[in-house]
Amino acid sequence: MTLKDTFDKLDAGRYINTRELIMGGIPYNARDIILKAPLLAGLNVYLVGDTGEGKTELANDLIGYFGDNSCYMMGRPDFEPSELLKQVNLGKLKDVKTDKELVELTDNVNKMMYYSDELNRAPPIVQNYFFDFMDGKLVHNGKIFQLGKNGYTVGYASGNLGNGEYVGVSNSDRALLDRMHMIIKLDYPDYCTTELDDLRIFSGKKNPRASMPENKDISDSILAMHNEFGKRNVSMILPLLGVYLTKGLDYVENVEKHSKRALGSRWAETEGIRTDTDENKIHPLSKRAVFGGMVLAYSLETIAKERGQNPRIVDLFLDSLRLTVPFSGVLSPTYVDMAHNGDAYSAFDSLLGPDSQNRAEIINKVDVLEEALLLAEAGKKDDALLQDIASQEGKWMPVRNAISTYADMQAENPTEKGKQIQEFIAEAHKSKK
Amino acid sequence: MTSELSPDDKRILERYLSRKSAPVQAAPKVDPVIAQNVSAFSIEDIIKNGNTFYDSKIPVALKQALDHATVGGIVVNMPELIAAKVKAAKTHDFWKNWYSVHTEENIGLDKKGRFYDKDKPVLVIVNGGGILTPDRIDKAYTDKDGMIDGSAKYVGKEFDNILDGKLPDNTSIQIYRFDEIKKGIKSLPHKFGVVMPYVMAQGTSSGYHQKAGFINNPLVIARAGGIENLEKYYDLAKSKKGNLGNYHPFNGRDASVPSGRLLFFYGSYNGLDGNLNLDIIGRFVGVAPEAQRKKK
């Protein structure tokens, strides 16, 4: 079965949302972003927003796609962790005596998709269990057990507004949020259903309750699709931008140590921090957030290429960060509240969106980064290129250092590709003479 | 990572090689006629014989200073005043007053790509007199739409000419790229220009800086005409908390409409300022040709 066949199957379902989003210069619909891309790459998704935005319909679609390979959990105030363990039969773990029993237990933790509905209604301790599931692991009796089938798990969670507070937007632990690769506010105008969708939804059903799943189990196709995705070659430019986002954004100009991380949680209010740039507005991203954005970009690129479209990968990556960063705790809450009336997406747009200074700076550097990177692959450095990347201490110096160190490393242990680059350059010089 | 060169890899390498083999973009050749006012004045001349010209209108103060300097003298520019302050005693007026300097900052597009990429915005700092003569400033005040964002709005080829090193009086000056200035130019004349990518100037902080942030700041280096005096100046001028200012108006300012204004220099730790509008008061230092004769 081809990737396209599986994508077509994932188009079938109860959840309706044809909202179009431009990412990397090409249009995607909400289903591409919320369903196909995360399933392709195995990215966890946290859906937040008001009731009635189709989260339960989406859950039912997912359960339908995964059939017996799914595990559905409902967050409730009286939820007991033991109940969660029972669902994957972990109660048996301590009694395992034989290989056969171990296999049986392993079968029980071999679910591919974990869906936690109304996560915010579960007590914090239970939420921690859920987040471990999202990490594809389970800690029991001091041992870590990998979940999933052939290394594949994907986690979805949803949270309704309920009592006015929900985890993931207003008051949650940053480490927990970080495990959710994507956090999407489904009631936000950019992501909610269109008016036509609403018309179709309202005219198509007479029962106000969410429909039960009825899709065919296509978990094997999803697994095959994921394995195929893993074989694809990826560009090195995104990891390099990852260095900028994790190390470069850490830089502060006028404060000792020049590091936001060194300043701790009050970095944004520290004396001497610049207020006329992004210094007091965005914390460096976590590696997990960058990784989430990269993988989402690669999966959206795969979806586009299956349609014969070719998105701009750097823009696609930066656009993908809009789905991983705004609620991951890196934006200064003061900035979000004071300058953007609490709208985290708007704050993100002004810092990393298409019209932002950061975006312009990054796009301006792409050519030299690509060139310096290929030279580094061949163990070579061009001082002029390195100078163009960063001529002084600042946000781009970690990127320059990364390329420089990589070049040194490659010079000592040349790769086949590095040799081919050297040959290409030598040939070009020869033909010029 | 793939072990074969992809079409994208080849495209990137070809782009790199083509850029490397392209002739180096040298600064535009200037006419052999070097502008008058080439500095034959030492910093001591400025400290000892500089006269102050103040008026509530900057073009009037500038005209008075130029009239005093006549053809053989100078109106002190930013690099010269920094150098003078470094040498002058802390009791000197230079450390007590603010001054406007004969240094202008112009922004616009480098349409021919003379220094950097074609059609990209650049900042051109001109020392010793460029587009903004007293008459031209007056014209900006009186013309309809003569000002933009507190700067003189340039028309016709004014900005293009300055990128070519051509002054309104048909003399020429040398325009240096920022990287040349940063490396250091021996014996800079009184009149010269510095060009840098506008995005580089925009990327610098407008406000107070600690030592490293100040002496490594590209805009400070360009304004000072190099790094030579920066560390000493910082050490002398900084506040008790180690702050020294460098201000600019470039954040969010569109350079596609060319414009320019003059720089100011504070006696205190407020430092260098390009954030003041052109329709403001002025205080210049003029040095007459007699200063040299006195020395002889």
H/E order of the elements of chain B? HHEHEHEEHEEHEHEHEHHHEEEEH
C-alpha Rg of chain B (nearest Å): 20 Å
Q: Biggest protein-protein interface?
A: A-B, 34 and 33 residues
- CATH class division of the largest domain in chain A: Alpha Beta
Question: What is the first-to-last residue Cα distance of chain B?
Answer: 71 Å
Q: Percent of residues of chain B in helical segments?
A: 25-40%
Structure, explained:
The complex is a heterodimer of chains A (433) and B (296). Chain A is of the alpha/beta class and 433 residues long. Chain A folds into 2 domains: 3-230, P-loop containing nucleotide triphosphate hydrolases (Rossmann fold); 237-432, no CATH class. In chain A, 48% of the residues lie in helices and 9% in strands. In chain A, strand 1 and strand 2 (26-29) form a beta hairpin. Chain A is globular and about 70 Å long. Chain B has one domain. In chain B, the strands form 2 sheets. In chain B, strands 3, 4, 5, 6, 7, 8, 9, 10, 11 and 12 form a 10-stranded mixed beta sheet that branches. A 3-stranded antiparallel beta sheet of chain B has the order 1-13-2. In chain B, a hairpin with a 6-residue loop joins strand 11 and strand 12. Chain B is globular. The chains are: A alpha/beta (433), B alpha+beta (296). Chain A binds chain B through residues 233, 235-236, 253-254, 272, 274, 276-277, 357, 360-361, 364, 367, 370-371, 374-375, 377, 382, 385, 387, 391-393, 415-417, 420-421, 424-425, 428, 432, and chain B through 1-6, 8-10, 12-17, 20-21, 179, 182, 199, 202-203, 205-210, 212-213, 216, 218, 251.
